[in-house]
Design goal:
Radius of gyration: 18 Å
Number of strands: 12
CATH superfamily: Metallo-dependent phosphatases
CATH architecture: 4-Layer Sandwich
Strand order of the largest sheet: 1-6-7-8-10-9
Distance between the termini: 40 Å
CATH class: Alpha Beta
CATH topology: Purple Acid Phosphatase, chain A, domain 2
Shape: globular
Strand content: 15-25%
Helix content: 25-40%
Structural class: alpha/beta
């Protein structure tokens, strides 16, 4: 599926952000980060033509039929405010919040995407997704992802009372690699999996920009003379995001010290 967002006004921009991991490493630290994200959303709302949230916005998310995870209300309230101001918002699921179902689409009118998608913005072709499980390797994770995406497994987890289910999720989240809030990711240059995956995709069909999250590193790498790979980083350490002004795509940092 290809989605077009052309005719972007000269005074408007499209924003991309990923890997907020709201919920870790503690309630207090998560709230500080949430407030910073809300400040960023307040800052960009005046010139935002559209906003893309590229997965792992929550460190864990599961929607029961009549319950959602407690917390993150300031972020959700800001989403509602921006949607009510007719700013299109797009959500992509990540490996931490793949159990997003219809809450955001029905309550806020925010479409949720579960795989890579192609967008055309002002004539530029974008190939975007969270980035988990792409390319070679990570076979164990790919197996686990299929299990977590299985409808029967989701139905079984939904049978667990939310109090117990969220407790299990919190224990799992504390063991995630992002919960320590340390810069443990290493750049592997041209051996970056998402970079090599993008190069492979470029041989199939041209895209001006390949944008992902997941790797937790702000990266801007040239694939060829007309194509670039951008990784959005994360918000525990970098507070990085991408900004498209209709022609150029740039990595930016919010409240960088």
């Amino acid at each position: 599926m290809s989605i077009e967002l052309n005719n972007i006004p000269s005074n408007k921009k499209v924003y991309f952000a990923s890997d907020f991991h709201l919920g870790v490493p503690s309630k207090e630290e998560s709230l500080k980060r949430e407030l910073k994200i809300v400040r960023w959303m307040e800052q960009i709302k005046s010139d935002a033509h559209a906003i893309f949230f590229m997965g792992d916005i929550f460190d864990f998310w599961f929607e029961y039929k009549r319950a959602i995870p407690k917390g993150f209300i300031r972020f959700q309230g800001k989403l509602a405010e921006l949607v009510d101001q007719n700013i299109p918002i797009y959500f992509f699921t990540g490996n931490h919040d793949m159990w997003m179902f219809d809450y955001f689409s029905t309550e806020l009118g925010i479409p949720v995407f579960r795989k890579n998608e192609q967008f055309e913005l002002n004539g530029k072709k974008f190939f975007i997704g969270h980035g988990d499980g792409l390319g070679s390797g990570d076979n164990m994770y790919k197996i686990l992802k299929k299990i977590f995406a299985n409808k029967i497994c989701q139905w079984l987890f939904a049978r667990i009372h939310p109090n117990l289910g969220m407790s299990i999720a919190n224990i799992w989240s504390k063991n995630s690699r992002i919960s320590s809030s340390k810069k443990e990711e290493k750049q592997f240059g041209e051996e970056e999996k998402l970079y090599t995956y993008s190069k492979t995709q470029e041989k199939i069909a041209h895209h001006d920009f390949y944008i992902y999250g997941h790797r937790h590193l702000p990266l801007d790498m040239s694939i060829n003379e007309t194509s670039r790979y951008i990784n959005l980083g994360e918000w525990l350490n970098y507070c990085s995001y991408a900004e498209f002004d209709g022609q150029k795509l740039s990595l930016k940092y919010f409240e960088k010290k």
